């Protein structure tokens, strides 16, 4: 199976300028600027096989978007090699863009003031897609994403969820073998997210479309990707199966407590003070979460201590979430699995 993406020792550096203080400093800045070179992507290497769905994750500033911009040919690398769909994204620009689809959650490729289907027609011309190819492929895309009622509306009249479904359809007009998705479900409600996930699974199965997905929503990754590449400070700190990550690092449990009375975090910390437990509070769900080792005796002790101290509305015992595992990895640095 051939690789859709090959990256070797990829590096991107930016100049970070600093201002001198005072009037004299400002005057000197007019003629010479102080700067330091900051690597946003720091000699990373990885490959993605044709047909793989890979989650590319990292905290803000880890280098995810910079990588995507280099892979799509928007930015030129400082050093290293990139081959995407057998081409250099910068040197074979025109031929290359015919083979990729891109959805940036924060940017639109649709024209703001014209009807969605007019945008689709313009993109069809740009990508030199025949009427037959368009009808054959896009009928399915439009039906599955449920955007038929939106085709006559101008983009500015669409809600965020409606626009993102149209953006996804627009990226697929030329049925590219490779799709880059940068935060495609940001700000969307649960039903729209589910629709988009189902659709992505379907095109991956039907056309063997390769998908590289960057997102802060780890439930997207869990639903779609078997493999994750994790970036921190411009370096790859994990590249492998999501399941391995969970099996090897999910050695903890989460106890979720809801109380009948008003309780605060210092109070629960105080009553479990002698036990090895870390407390969090989920404000949205109003749930107190105790993170602890998967030890039956310890779990029983924590439950007994908390039940003795407070009136309980509900208790749940969960495996440690992917989110918690990944937060722990970022705190500890690179991860050894296996």
TrEMBL record:
One of its GO terms (molecular function) is ATP binding. It comes from Neobacillus kokaensis. SMART domains: AAA. Residues 25-258 form the ABC transporter domain. The lineage of its organism: Bacteria, Bacillati, Bacillota, Bacilli, Bacillales. InterPro entries: AAA+_ATPase (IPR003593), ABC_transporter-like_ATP-bd (IPR003439), ABC_transporter_ATP-binding (IPR050763), P-loop_NTPase (IPR027417). It comes from the Bacteria. This is Daunorubicin ABC transporter ATP-binding protein. Keywords: ATP-binding, Nucleotide-binding, Transport. Pfam families: ABC_tran.
């Amino acid at each position: 199976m051939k690789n859709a993406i090959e990256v070797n020792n990829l590096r991107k550096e930016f100049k970070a300028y600093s201002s001198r203080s005072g009037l004299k400093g400002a005057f000197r800045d007019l003629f010479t600027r102080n700067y330091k070179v900051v690597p946003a992507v720091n000699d990373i290497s990885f490959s993605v096989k044709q047909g793989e769905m890979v989650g590319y994750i990292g905290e803000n500033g880890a280098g995810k978007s910079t990588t995507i911009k280099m892979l799509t040919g928007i930015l030129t690398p400082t050093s290293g090699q990139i081959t995407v769909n057998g081409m250099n994204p910068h040197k074979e620009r025109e031929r290359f863009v015919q083979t990729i689809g891109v959805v940036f959650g924060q940017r639109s490729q649709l024209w703001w003031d014209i009807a969605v289907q007019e945008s689709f027609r313009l993109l069809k011309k740009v990508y030199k897609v025949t009427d037959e190819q368009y009808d054959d492929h896009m009928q399915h895309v439009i039906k599955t994403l449920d955007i038929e009622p939106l085709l006559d509306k101008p983009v500015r009249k669409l809600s965020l969820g409606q626009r993102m479904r149209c953006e996804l359809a627009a990226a697929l007009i030329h049925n590219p073998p490779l799709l880059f998705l940068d935060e495609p479900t940001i700000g969307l409600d649960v039903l729209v997210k589910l629709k988009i996930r189902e659709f992505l699974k379907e095109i991956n199965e039907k056309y063997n479309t390769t998908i590289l997905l960057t997102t802060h929503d780890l439930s997207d990754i869990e639903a779609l990707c078997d493999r994750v590449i994790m970036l921190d400070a411009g370096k790859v700190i994990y590249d492998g199966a999501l399941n391995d990550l969970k099996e090897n690092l999910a050695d903890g449990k989460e106890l979720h407590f809801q109380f009948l009375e008003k309780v605060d975090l210092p109070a629960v910390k105080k009553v479990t003070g002698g036990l090895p437990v870390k407390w969090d509070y989920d404000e949205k769900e109003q749930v107190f979460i105790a993170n602890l080792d998967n030890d039956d005796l310890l779990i029983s002790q924590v439950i007994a201590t908390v039940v003795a101290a407070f009136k309980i509305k509900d208790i749940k015992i969960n495996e440690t979430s992917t989110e918690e595992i990944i937060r722990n990895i970022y705190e500890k640095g690179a991860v050894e699995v296996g």
